[in-house]
Structure prediction request, 226 residues.
Amino acid sequence: EPEVTQTPSHQVTQMGQEVILRCVPISNHLYFYWYRQILGQKVEFLVSFYNNEISEKSEIFDDQFSVERPDGSNFTLKIRSTKLEDSAMYFCASKGQTNTEAFFGQGTRLTVV
Amino acid sequence: GDSVTQMEGPVTLSEEAFLTINCTYTATGYPSLFWYVQYPGEGLQLLLKATKADDKGSNKGFEATYRKETTSFHLEKGSVQVSDSAVYFCALRSSGNTGKLIFGQGTTLQVKP
Prediction:
């Protein structure tokens, strides 16, 4: 069964460093998303991406964040200068043209120290 | 804006007990509604969905009915098992075309043998 794959599963980084979280969406999907879940809190939408551009972003997704689909298979989330409050589980998701539901990856736990 | 509210957890039940997790929503238009489940240490998995009023989603013994008149999508299961212990998230997909999901805060279910 096709699945969304995220790497790494856990990343520890120092405050101020750049991190790139990687995702391989399901191959024929067209809509891509990043969500985050701070420990013990709800899952929050960050950004959606369609047709090689951002289609919607939340207030959380400020200038420190960027997304890219560099090669037609990977979908990355970059945080330019990490802060302690960026520590969270980050989920990638993808959706096909005809699907109503999004399929989620296993998540990357980011710890900023 | 659109929002989802779930009952507070944690919910602790004995095996074979009846489960209800309440979910209500606020949305413009006609959202699709979902329940996602997060087992310990894992990502988000779609449990069931409903795309229009009076639809009933069902999977693995769980059911939820899309009630437009009460703006609710309560999750039920007649007889829970220890393996159902997880965090359950109610979510809606707003009627805009980006397909982003808005999640409730999650309800932790613990089933004891």
